[in-house]
Amino acid sequence: MNGGEPLFMALAKGRLAEDALALISNAGYDVGGVDLNGRKLVYDSGGVRYIFVKPADVPTYVEHGIADIGVSGKDTLLEENRRLYEALDLGFGRCRLVVAGPPGMAGRLGDNDLRIATKYPNIAADYFYRQKGRKVEIIRLNGSVELGPLVGLADFIVDIVETGSTLIENGLAVLEEICPSSARLVVNRASMKLEHERIAPLIERMKPLVNENKP
Predict the structure, then answer these.
(1) Which domain holds residue 66?
(2) Does 2 have pLDDT greater than 80?
(3) Full-prediction pTM beyond 0.85?
């Protein structure tokens, strides 16, 4: 966007948005007009128009150019597989995408006719096909996927974990790690060219702050 129009940034309310706004503020941008506890979906502050959407929708808004930039977890980006420019690993929101199930069941991960409960059907199907050479039955759940193996709905689950405490409390264990995940700054491909003079400085201001926080 040109002239006096703001950059559009897609965020999902919650911890990622809190950490993203803190980082943007530390990079020298005014975010004082944004109220994460409010019900509004659009806020203007410091030359940026923040739009709040569901986490899985951030890549969609950025890919279609409704938002120039956005913050999304790597897990969501892999699942949605949108055509975006991944500009920066922001370092927060760290977790792991894993295959989990009853302890001692890792030897069954190569079996035929497995049922996998997950919020990440594309990632799960791709992982088992590429790593195990197996097509699995995907059971998509939007709630607590840990329940799947406990009640016989699924053999294993694919989900994100931080500490793994929820798995342990439900008698499950991490059996294999698919990949690490963290928050990423993503940019619409056209905006990266058309709005380069405004987007590039934001990225450059963020880089040293992100590097300071990396383990």
Answers:
(1) 7-93+182-213
(2) no
(3) yes
